[in-house]
Amino acid sequence: MKDFSSEMAYLEQWAPKAEELFTNEEQEQKLVGFQSAICQVILSSGITERITPKDIVTFLERLAYENGVEEDETFQRLRNEMKNLGFLIGSLKKGAKGEKRTRDGLRNLEFSPGVKILYNITLDDGTDRTEYDAIVLTPYGIFVVEAKNFNGDARITEKGILVRKDDRFGEYNLGEKMNRKEFLLRSCLGDLASVPYHALLLYVNEQADIEDEYHQIPITYCNTVAKTIRQFDHGDELITAEELKRIENEIISHQIDARYPCGVDCQQIIEDLTVIMRRIANSEPADDPLPVKAVPAKAYSPVAPPAPVIVERRRGLPWWGTLLLSLGGAGLGAGGMALYDHYKQNRN
Q1: Is 52 helix (H, G, I), strand (E, B) or coil?
Q2: What is d(CA 82, CA 189) in angstroms, rounded to the nearest whole number?
Q3: pLDDT digits (tens, 9 = 90+) for 265-324
């Protein structure tokens, strides 16, 4: 009887620990490695020949159906956690792409005299903590840039609520968030708190349209954000070079190392996957229209973190099975921002 103990020990080597804290970049790297390790474990079981991370959920769903465990509580929990894993990875990757595009949009300002740009700043005054995508320090004011990397069109209501028009992933209280950012930043600046301050909403997707009923926060895009900021320059030095340096030093001195727990329960995934793999590998084929006899597990030995491999569809699937496998991977990235937006709103 195969107990998959060596495979699960291998997964634990790559799983983020519950007590560990990560930056977004570190968490993405950890979770991608863990997801690829799951592919390696599935391959080692002999149940399939090739698989990619985006196909894991659909593959497990088909396997559960064929072996009569699709209604099992353990499988249901495993499927939900695997979806959360895919969602979070997709969200972190999308966030990283948004950060890069934000930097690309702002970098031309760095050639302007007296301009300094601080990225990914987290401030904490002991009672409140919030993150800043970018803080632009100029002789004519401080600009806090809030970047959003949403796909679709959106609307900002009269009360400052950012709502996506497709009604996906709920609402984002832009007005409240930006007020909190301004208060915390001014609190850190001490006697320089009265310097000119401006908030900007940077929408990374230039193809999207934003309907603005709030009219309190200028809306800009990556290809226009530098021009938007320069429009505030009327030739007056509102903040001296010495004050700008003091402001920069105050922000940096109040900055904290922003690390957070993993957003997915990887240990639960390992435990549930162990249970399901044992049942499938050690059981007789289920009595249903699509019986699949489990192939005896291959000898397994831990290896270096696996690179994603190209999927080869299992032979003998009905036409609808092939269609599901070809389409199923989209589900991993489609809802990514749901989990991550909730994750960010709770800590901002």
Answers
A1: coil
A2: 44
A3: 999 999 999 999 888 877 644 444 333 333 333 333 444 444 443 333 333 333 333 333
Angle between helices 174-189 and 241-254 (to 10 degrees): 110
Task: Grade residue 125 by pLDDT with cuts at 50, 70 and 90.
Answer: confident
Whether residue 221 sits in one domain with residue 144? yes
Task: Report the length, in residues, of the chain.
Answer: 348
Tell me if 141 sits within 8 A of 239, measured CB to CB: yes
Helices (H), 131-285: 174-189, 225-230, 241-254, 266-282
> What is the rounded distance in angstroms from the CA atom of residue 248 to the CA atom of residue 138?
11
Instruction: Tell me, yes or no, whether 125 and 220 share the same domain.
Output: yes
| Same domain for 136 and 57 | no
> Is there a contact between 115 and 135 (Cβ–Cβ < 8 Å)?
no
Together in a domain, 17 and 147 = no
How many whole angstroms separate alpha carbon 153 and alpha carbon 210? Answer: 6
Q: Which amino acid is at 33?
A: G
Same domain, 124 and 199: yes
Q: What is the mean pLDDT of residues 149-175?
A: 85
Give the pTM.
0.76
Residue with tokens 């401006």: 198
Q: State the residue range of the domain holding 38.
A: 5-94+262-347
Of 232, 254, 276, which one is at a domain's C-terminal end? 254
